[in-house]
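Action item from last meeting closed. Structure (166 res):
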């Protein structure tokens, strides 16, 4: 797929922080609703989709051990399967972040059957200067640039399906 810029509905909204300063971290989006997110791990691509149209796509960084599905806490893998955006963190250590509903019941049962913990706290997040210049560096999350997570944060709501594919 080709990189698309269908962001006519995205605009920066000044936000007064608790310190009294302005921040352009929070944006407003009035374009087509994002109905699903697809992450194609092998291609390091993430697509925001409305219906059957790609609204926006991004290059991503993954967990430091990205091949295969996440199985256990600390394995450095990014999950695979169907999950949902289940929370929004405006105070993320990684600029902004959107929580992914990993682990699901199947992930928990698998890990526990082997006496392990499945892990958790998987997010789509920014970099906040923490990538050290490496391609795949997260603990299992999906990372984009800080300006990109600002767009994504404005465009994606809680409950949006996230398809994480090999």
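Sequence:
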């Amino acid at each position: 797929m080709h990189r698309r810029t269908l962001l006519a509905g995205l605009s920066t909204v000044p936000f007064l922080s608790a310190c009294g300063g302005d921040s352009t971290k929070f944006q407003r989006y009035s374009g087509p609703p994002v109905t699903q997110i697809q992450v194609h791990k092998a291609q390091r691509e993430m697509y925001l989709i409305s219906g059957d149209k790609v609204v926006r796509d991004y290059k991503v960084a993954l967990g430091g051990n990205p091949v295969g599905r996440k199985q256990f806490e600390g394995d450095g893998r990014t999950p695979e399967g169907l999950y949902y955006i289940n929370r929004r963190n405006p105070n993320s250590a990684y600029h902004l972040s959107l929580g992914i509903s990993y682990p699901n019941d199947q992930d928990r049962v698998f890990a526990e059957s082997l006496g392990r913990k499945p892990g958790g706290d998987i997010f789509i997040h920014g970099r906040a200067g923490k990538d050290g210049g490496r391609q795949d560096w997260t603990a299992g999350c999906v990372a984009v640039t800080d300006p990109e997570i600002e767009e994504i944060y404005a465009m994606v709501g809680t409950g949006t399906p996230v398809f994480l594919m090999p």
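Note appended to the action item: The longest strand covers residues 81-89.
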